[in-house]
Amino acid sequence: MWKENWAPDKGTGALRTAIKTEERLFNRFDDRGDIHLDLQTHRATGKIINVSLNGVLGLFNINDNLPKMSKAVNLDLEFENKSRIDMLEGTVIRIQASQRSHENHTVEIALKFKDLSPQKRHQLKKFLGLMIKKTRGCPYFS
After folding, report:
1. Terminal-to-terminal C-alpha distance of the chain
2. CATH superfamily to which 32-135 belongs
3. Chain segment 92-122, per-residue pLDDT in tens
């Protein structure tokens, strides 16, 4: 969401400045684990960019047969610390060209988690709790 503020400039009258604000329900945490999408005919594997209680962003090879927008998929997450959360349900909410990789054949796919069971939600909260402790130890977050 963009909020605009107008600040008076003594020389030209008014100067427009735009401030980008994030209004997210959940914090995102970076991880470099694997994300596996179970599609009808095969399995696509990518790298996790970041994850939250709401969803996950992954980096995939464009040469794989990838899901379309609004497609429901089953997914498994294998985090960098080797913990796993299997059999999650998600919906593809965004597909975009990746600027994170120097390779031209990668895309980012954002998936929103769907109908998390209390057990899966607990597993995800437990992992994200570890990430919060990890970032608190970082000098940038002190």
Report:
1. 27
2. predicted glycosyltransferase like domains (2.40.10.220)
3. 999 998 887 666 788 999 999 999 999 998 8
